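Marked as duplicate of an earlier ticket. Keeping the data here for the record.
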Amino acid sequence: MILASQSPRRKEILANAGFMFTVHAPHLDETPLEGETPPQMVERLARSKAHAAVAYAREQGEHLIVAADTVVWSSHTGVLGKPADEQDALRMLRLLSGRTHYVTSGVSIIRVEGASTIEHTFHETTDVTFHALEDAWMRAYAASGEPLDKAGAYAIQGRGAVLVKSISGDYDNVVGLPLSRLVRELNVVFNGDTDYVLETLGG
């Protein structure tokens, strides 16, 4: 498998599940297109990342590419990317405080078979509700440095867990990759023949 992403969170999710993979992450312009919804945006970017890795997969003799893109968004915040600095992180945390927002990941799978490919793209959304946060909490978290490379300025798998009141949906999706859904969607490109997944789960 080739993971078309440099995200350490995605690498950790796949490795913890027992998957063997190499990383080949293309550099793309991730600017949203006018009129594009967050689900449409992450599907488009995931698809573009996967396509950018096809030539590399053929060179390496690999047959499966997985790419993903994740955004944090809501109707009152719009899309929240990675904060530019500590003050920008604090701004985002204030927007999220006491409210429910959405984390949507687009995932694209490409099976490479010689000159042909079989492709499948989907998205998964998890609802995340923050506690109403005191300003001192938000300032301390922003100053910790953890939010600076995280979409939405928090890491649910790190110190940011204390900000979260509840989630509805897939936890791994909030981290960056909806693993359970991914495994099931592999059936689409392998026509139900996913013996290697069963071997992975069986150790």
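See parent ticket for discussion. The CA atoms of residues 100 and 129 lie 4 Å apart.
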